[in-house]
C-alpha cells in the first residue's frame, strides 16, 4: 500500500502553495511549473521534507552551487527529526552515485546515455537505497538527465519554468515530462509573492513565451535605467543605496567577474555597515564560495549564478555588454527576464558608454531614466 500523503503544514506557505503540495502524491514522478516569485524553491524544499518522512534517502538538487547554498539554508529552517534532507548539486550527486570517473562527453558534461545504462543495470537490487530526488530550476538540465534519473531514483519531482532557461543544456517542460515517462504528473502554481507590479510589468517585456502571469497586487517604484560614467560611479551609487537601506539585501548582477572584482575593491574601501560579498563559481572554498545569503548588505554575483535568488534591490550593473546582441534574441530576453525578477522592491539597470544599449530602448512607461 503506497504511503498516504500527509503534508507537514508550515506557516510560511500561502493557501495556494499548500494546495500545490497536497496535490503531489508521495510516489511517482511529477513536474511543477510556475512563474518567478511563485515560491518554487521554497516549495521544492517543503516537498523534499515531505518525501523524507517516508524514510527513504532524499536529495534536493540544483545545477548551481550558489542555489544549493540557498536551498541548504532553507532546509535548515524546515528540519524534521528523523527525516534528513540533503541539498546537493547535480554534479556532486552524479559523482557520488556513479563515481568520480563517471563517463563524460566531449563537451565536458556527463554522458547521459552511458549513465542511463549504468542506472538500469542494478534495477530492482537494493531498492531501499534509491533516493527521492527533488530538482529545483529543473529547466536548466537536459532531457538525458531525467531519462537517467527515472531509473536511478525512487521518484523525481521537478520544479521548473521554461521561460527561465539560461544554460545551453536545458529542457522544456514537455521534454522533462516525456523523459520521466507518460505517467508523470503535472501541477501548476500561480501567483507572484516576490515582485512588485512595476517589476513584473518590465519583466513581461522580455518574456519569451507562454501565458502571461497573474499580476501582483503589491505596487512600488518604477525600475530605473541609470547611466554611469564608470565603475567608480557605479560603486558610489551602490554605496549610497546600502547606506540608505542598511537592513536590505542588494544584489549586484554582472556579466563579467572582472567587473565584479573591480566593484568589490571599491565597495570594500567604502566602509559599508556590512562587508560586501562576492560569489565566484571558480572558487573551490572560502569567502568567494560560501556566502551568508541571509544577512543584509551587498552581494556581487555573475548573471549565470543568479537563478533562484532574490534581493530587496537588484542592480543589473553592466547592461552595455549586451549592446552588440540582437535585442530580440531569445537568450538575451530570457537572461533579462530572470535578472529583473530577482528584485523584490527596487531595480536599477545600469549602463556605461555614449549610447543607450538597444535592448533598453523603447521602455517608456516601464522605467525611469536617470
Secondary-structure blueprint:
Layout: H1 15-22, E1 30-33, H2 40-52, E2 58-62, H3 65-76, E3 86-89, H4 90-98, H5 112-120, E4 132-135, H6 143-152, E5 155-160, H7 173-180, E6 185-188, H8 197-206, E7 224-227, H9 231-244, E8 249-254, H10 257-269, E9 277-278, E10 297-302, E11 311-316, H11 330-340, E12 343-351, E13 368-369
Parallel strand pairs: 1-5, 1-6, 2-3, 2-4, 4-5, 7-12, 7-13, 8-10, 8-11, 9-10, 11-12
Helix pairs in contact: 5-6, 6-7, 8-11, 9-10
Structural commentary:
This protein is an alpha/beta fold and 370 residues long. It is built from eleven helices and 13 strands. The chain has helices at residues 15-22, 40-52, 65-76, 90-98, 112-120, 143-152, 173-180, 197-206, 231-244, 257-269, 330-340; strands at 30-33, 58-62, 86-89, 132-135, 155-160, 185-188, 224-227, 249-254, 277-278, 297-302, 311-316, 343-351, 368-369. The strands form two sheets. Strands 9-10-8-11-12-7-13 form a seven-stranded parallel β-sheet, with helices on one face. It has a six-stranded parallel β-sheet with strand order 3-2-4-5-1-6, with helices on both faces. Strand 11 (311-316), helix 11 (330-340) and strand 12 form a beta-alpha-beta unit. Helix 9 (231-244) packs across helix 10 (257-269). The N and C termini lie far apart (64 Å). Residues 1-7 have low confidence and may be disordered.
Amino acid at each position: 500500500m503506497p504511503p498516504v500523503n500527509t503534508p507537514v503544514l508550515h506557516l510560511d506557505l500561502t493557501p495556494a502553495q499548500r494546495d500545490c503540495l497536497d496535490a503531489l502524491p508521495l510516489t511517482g514522478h511529477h513536474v511543477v511549473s510556475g512563474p518567478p516569485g511563485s515560491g518554487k524553491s521554497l516549495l521544492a524544499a517543503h516537498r523534499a521534507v515531505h518525501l523524507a518522512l517516508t524514510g527513504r534517502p532524499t536529495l534536493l538538487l540544483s545545477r548551481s552551487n550558489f542555489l544549493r547554498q540557498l536551498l541548504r539554508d532553507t532546509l535548515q529552517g524546515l528540519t524534521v527529526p528523523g527525516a534528513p534532507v540533503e541539498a546537493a548539486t547535480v554534479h556532486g550527486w552524479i559523482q557520488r552515485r556513479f563515481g568520480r570517473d563517471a563517463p563524460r562527453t566531449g563537451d565536458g558534461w556527463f554522458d547521459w546515455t552511458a549513465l542511463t545504462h549504468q542506472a538500469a543495470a542494478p534495477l530492482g537490487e537494493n531498492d531501499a537505497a534509491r533516493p527521492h530526488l527533488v530538482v529545483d530550476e529543473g529547466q536548466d538540465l537536459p532531457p538525458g538527465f531525467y531519462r537517467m534519473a527515472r531509473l536511478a531514483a525512487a521518484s523525481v519531482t521537478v520544479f521548473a519554468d521554461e521561460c527561465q532557461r539560461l544554460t545551453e543544456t536545458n529542457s522544456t517542460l514537455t521534454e522533462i515530462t516525456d523523459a520521466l515517462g507518460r505517467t508523470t504528473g503535472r501541477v501548476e502554481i500561480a501567483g507572484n509573492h516576490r515582485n512588485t507590479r512595476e517589476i513584473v510589468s518590465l519583466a513581461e517585456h522580455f518574456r519569451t513565451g507562454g501565458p502571461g502571469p497573474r499580476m501582483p497586487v503589491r505596487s512600488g517604484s518604477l525600475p530605473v535605467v541609470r547611466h554611469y560614467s564608470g565603475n567608480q560611479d557605479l560603486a558610489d551609487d551602490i554605496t549610497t543605496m546600502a547606506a540608505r537601506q542598511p537592513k536590505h539585501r542588494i544584489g549586484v548582477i554582472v556579466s563579467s567577474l572582472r567587473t565584479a572584482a573591480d566593484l568589490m575593491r571599491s565597495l570594500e574601501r567604502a566602509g559599508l555597515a556590512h562587508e560586501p560579498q562576492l560569489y565566484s563559481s571558480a572558487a573551490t572554498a572560502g569567502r568567494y564560495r560560501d556566502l551568508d545569503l541571509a544577512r543584509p548588505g551587498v552581494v556581487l554575483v555573475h548573471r549565470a549564478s543568479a537563478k533562484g535568488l532574490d534581493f530587496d534591490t537588484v542592480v543589473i550593473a553592466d547592461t552595455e555588454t549586451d549592446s552588440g546582441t540582437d535585442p530580440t534574441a531569445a537568450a538575451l530576453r530570457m537572461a533579462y527576464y530572470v535578472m529583473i525578477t530577482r528584485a523584490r522592491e527596487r531595480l536599477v539597470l545600469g549602463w556605461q558608454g555614449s549610447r543607450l544599449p538597444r535592448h533598453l530602448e523603447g521602455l517608456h512607461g516601464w522605467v525611469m531614466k536617470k
